[in-house]
Write a structure and sequence with these properties.
By secondary structure, this protein is mainly α. It contains 15 helices and no strands. α2 crosses α3 and α14 packs antiparallel against α15. The mean pLDDT is 84.
């Protein structure tokens, strides 16, 4: 019996694969030293009079890639040099992605702290034209409108996802629902506002602006997000758990409520919280559905309501006299909205950690 073998590797390939274990390595501080040297090179190359931040950053990144690649190739070999170059590229890409985020947060915090005081959280804009006033009515409006939107969209999205995964998998109706959910996920937010506004014009009459209209517009935006996140979490539940429950004679509805949903409750709760955070900052649909008011309104079925996004928009576009006071209120409202969204994201992470399945040995 004869055995066939492939062509033997060349000596260079063997040397590349079987590298000695005690190969020379660069010190850990080398990337930082290379970055500092690249920054010095960028500062020397660019003219002091026409120096720009973008040019310095670009030249620093290119010089750092070349320098770390050459140093690693000389000291550690070509394979390690490629790894360091790719690592540097990923790090640079991460830094570039963080620049706009940090810039936005820095700008909003720097401009919003001017009116981040007790008055801003305890007063409304009723009777205020210039300085003073606050956003108490907008904060309450945001909470009420978003809460009603969540109460509408969460049950609908959750039950729709359960149907898609547990009951209608592969059916024509499930495929049609999935297609419509995908379409709704990509529609502009203003379309949801115009849809609700047109519906209430037909039912109630022209010029109608109510808090419930804003909640319905936000619910239209929330439902596809809740459906998608819940559907993906339900698909992650192993079929073995379902089959084990069926083997014990447990009905399907009880298997879904006691096994499937309990196993995926962490991801479902996280997706719902992130969906709420996503719609809390919407402005366009609320502009055409609930408008703005200067006083506090707790009844979403009677009259207009104020929300933080719309409040910030009107304070910036119609600041009053003096204009600086309205602009300061707009920046502070934006800061409060960012803090609210950040808090919801932290709550989502906390829920994910608390309700995650405990894995034992």
């Amino acid at each position: 019996m004869t055995t066939t073998t492939g062509p033997s590797p060349s000596p260079e390939a063997v040397a590349e694969i079987e590298q000695p274990m005690r190969q020379a390595r660069l010190p850990r501080w080398t990337p930082w030293a290379s970055l500092a040297a690249a920054l010095v090179v960028a500062l020397l190359v660019t003219a002091p009079g026409g120096r720009s931040l973008g040019g310095v950053v670009a030249i620093t990144a290119i010089a750092h890639l070349v320098l770390i690649g050459v140093l690693s190739a000389v000291r550690e070999g070509s394979r390690r040099a490629k790894d360091r170059i790719v690592t540097a590229l990923v790090t640079i890409a991460f830094g570039l992605a963080m620049i706009p985020l940090v810039s936005v947060v820095w700008t909003v915090v720097g401009n919003g702290l001017a009116r981040f005081d007790t008055t801003f959280f305890t007063w409304s804009m009723r009777g205020v034209v210039g300085e003073g006033g606050g956003a108490l009515h907008a904060i309450w409006g945001t909470i009420i409108v978003t809460l009603i939107a969540a109460l509408i969209s969460v049950p609908v999205g959750l039950l729709a996802a359960v149907y898609l995964v547990e009951y209608g998998a592969g059916s024509r109706l499930a495929k049609a629902i999935t297609f419509l959910v995908d379409v709704m996920t990509g529609i502009p937010s203003i379309v949801a506002g115009l849809f609700v506004a047109a519906l209430f014009v037909i039912v109630v009459g022209p010029g109608t602006k109510l808090g419930i209209m804003g909640s319905l517009a936000l619910a239209v935006l929330m439902i596809p997000t809740v459906v998608r996140s819940t559907e993906e979490m339900l698909k992650l539940v192993p079929n073995d758990l379902r089959e084990a429950a069926y083997a014990l004679g447990v009905p399907k509805w009880r298997t879904i409520t006691k096994v499937v949903l309990r196993t995926s409750v962490s991801g479902i709760a996280t997706g719902i919280t992130l969906a709420i955070a996503r719609v809390a900052g919407e402005t366009a649909p609320l502009l055409v559905t609930l408008g703005i008011t200067t006083g506090t309104n707790f009844n979403p079925f009677d009259g207009r309501m104020a929300t933080l996004p719309v409040y910030a928009y009107y304070q910036y576009t119609q600041p009053g006299v003096p204009a600086e006071a309205g602009v300061e209120r707009a920046w502070t409202a934006a800061l409060v909205l960012i803090i609210l969204v950040m808090a919801l994201n932290l709550v989502a992470r906390l829920i994910s950690r608390l309700f995650a399945p405990k894995v034992g040995r």
